[in-house]
Specification:
Shape of chain B: elongated
Shape of chain A: elongated
CATH class of the largest domain in chain A: Alpha Beta
Number of helices of chain A: 10
Order of helices and strands of chain A: EEEHEEHEHHHEHEHEEHEEEHEH
CATH architecture of the largest domain in chain A: 3-Layer(aba) Sandwich
Number of strands of chain A: 14
Largest sheet of chain B: none
Largest interface: A-B, 31 and 24 residues
Oligomer: heterodimer
Helix content of chain A: 25-40%
Low-confidence stretches of chain B: none
Number of strands of chain B: 0
Structural class of chain B: mainly alpha
Number of helices of chain B: 9
Radius of gyration of chain B: 19 Å
Mean pLDDT of chain B: 90
Distance between the termini of chain A: 49 Å
């Protein structure tokens, strides 16, 4: 099966079910992730959380010990060649051939993929400010990332898998890369898995959010509704009063008469419950994705250790 | 079989290594010119350089095509293309084998031409030349297979050390077989049973190493 042959009836670009991979000092533990077609998933985790291993499993480069992996309907790793016709992969640690020019790389990729769009490649060269006759060794890190992205985008893959593509980029280059990804998604039937430890980038472009920590998925859902569930409540608590354990509150930090409660399933009744027990709710604040990620990781680790 | 992509990967390796191949051919041809036109000392030097060119090429090709792809992190780019680990190994083996065999065959043929036209070296040396020339080919096969399977600079260095330090010892052992060396001064090449047995053993060893390499590569579970 070659490019364009993916079954349009398949609903999910990526499906990982109970994927396990054991190493001596690290285990990817029962990973379940689903990326619906046409969506962007932000895949967030700290360094060493298992993002790159998960990505290598779904590309067929690392074989899982247990579990099922399907990418664009293809079973991995057995059907990795068929799947890879429609997958574009760029990672932060991916390098091109330093001694060769950008133009040589474009010719090389074009010679493999019949879907190569030469006009779009030229447009990307201009947008990214890349010179086709320049050797890769003369490129900055940002230019190298943009070159790898150009080589992938110009062949029009149905699924983009980006492993920390914005790491180490200056703000301008990051903006250019994210803007191009947003353009890409204007085309129907494209899906993106975007791994990063930079939550700002992920928050900007994702429809779905997945958090991974210590080889386990700790959350995976639609971004807006997920963000909406999290709140930080700033409380004033009378001396001597103990704050009650309320459902939906995952952490409470107290400093004298002031307390901060974090909720992962906020409903107004939580604030009312505090008020009814004598605490005063000073403010109910929205949380950024980074704050949610950190709170989630800490809560998950506490649960595991308990 | 994914022949179109494998073909592109082979062409890519040729393009990236053309300087190394050209240099090996240049050194080999220079060595043969010394053998053809030089004094006795120059002929000895030319013979040594002829084999050194093949031995060095046998270590350099696996280093530049397999190790550099990992060290310089271009392997992820290649493996993002529609190829499996086994297809990558096949492409890699075909490309480095071709990159070694083209100069190897070219230099062996050139050496035969020198023997044929030079009238200084007896034709009886031809069987010995082929037996000895098979050794760098065998060494190259061992080094490239060890590097492909071991995926590390350590594997390359260890295999190169073992092979490159063994040539002289193997040559010495072969020189101790009287039926191999007794006819080297004759006017015609003599293909006696000893010569045929050694040549066939060398070829069989090559085939076994290639088969083992492909088998081990197909069993790998983690590729990057």
């Amino acid at each position: 099966m070659r490019i364009g042959d993916s079954d349009p009836a398949i609903d999910n670009a990526i499906e990982l079910r109970g994927v396990t991979k054991k190493y001596r000092y690290f285990t990817l533990d029962g990973i379940n992730v689903t990326l619906p077609r046409g969506q962007i998933m932000g895949f967030i985790g700290a360094n060493g959380a298992g993002k790159s291993t998960t990505i290598r499993v779904l590309l067929g480069l690392v074989h899982q010990d247990a579990g099922e992996v399907r990418v664009l309907g293809h079973k991995m790793p057995a059907q990795q060649v068929a799947a890879k016709w429609d997958i574009g992969f760029v990672s932060e640690d991916m390098r091109l051939y330093e001694a060769m020019t950008m133009s040589w790389h474009m010719d090389f990729v074009r010679s493999i993929y019949p879907t190569w769009d030469a006009a779009y490649a030229q447009l990307l060269l201009k947008r990214f400010g890349l010179r086709p006759d320049q050797k890769i060794k003369g490129f900055s890190h940002g230019q190298r990332v943009k070159s790898a992205l150009l080589l992938v985008l110009a062949r029009k893959p149905k699924l983009l898998v980006l492993d920390e593509p914005t790491t180490g980029l200056d703000p301008v280059a990051r903006h250019e890369v994210l803007r191009e990804l947003t353009h890409v998604m204007a085309e129907e039937d494209r899906s993106i898995l975007f791994s990063s430890h930079n939550t700002q980038d992920v928050e900007q472009i994702s429809d779905q959010i997945t958090f991974i920590d210590r080889g386990r998925i700790i959350a995976s859902m639609e971004k807006e509704s997920y963000l909406d569930r999290w709140r930080r409540l700033r409380l004033e608590v009378p001396r001597g009063m103990e704050l009650p354990d309320l459902p939906g509150i995952i952490a409470v930090e107290r400093e004298g008469s002031l307390a901060v409660a974090t909720s992962n399933a906020f409903v107004p009744d939580i604030a009312n419950a505090y008020e009814s027990r004598g605490a005063r709710v000073q403010r109910v604040e929205n949380m950024t994705l980074e704050e949610i990620f950190v709170a989630n990781v800490e809560h998950s680790r506490e649960e595991v250790e308990a | 079989m994914n022949t179109a992509v494998i073909g592109r990967l082979i062409l890519k390796d040729w393009r990236l290594n053309r300087l190394t191949i050209s240099l090996a051919i240049a050194v080999g041809v220079g060595a043969l010119l010394l053998v053809r036109y030089g004094s006795e000392i120059a002929r000895t030097l030319g013979t040594v350089w002829f084999f050194v060119a093949l031995i060095v090429l046998g270590s350099m090709l696996p280093a530049s095509t397999i190790i550099n792809e990992r060290k310089k992190q271009t392997l992820a780019f290649i493996m993002s293309l529609p190829v499996s680990a086994v297809q990558y190994a096949i492409a890699k083996m075909l490309s480095i084998w071709a990159m070694f065999l083209v100069p190897w065959c070219g230099l062996i043929i050139s050496a035969l031409v020198v023997i044929e036209t030079g009238r200084v070296i007896p034709h009886g040396v031809i069987p010995i030349l082929l037996i000895l020339a098979m050794l760098p080919l065998l060494g190259f096969c061992i080094i490239s297979s060890a590097t492909l399977i071991g995926e590390s600079e350590g594997a390359l260095i260890a295999a190169s050390l073992v092979c490159n330090s063994s040539y002289w010892f193997v040559w010495y052992l072969l020189s101790r077989i009287p039926t191999l060396t007794e006819n080297w001064k004759s006017g015609l090449p003599v293909w006696n049973p000893a010569v045929r047995t050694v040549l066939l053993s060398e070829m069989a060893t090559l085939a076994i190493i290639v088969a083992i390499t492909l088998l081990l590569q197909s069993r790998k579970r983690d590729f990057i």
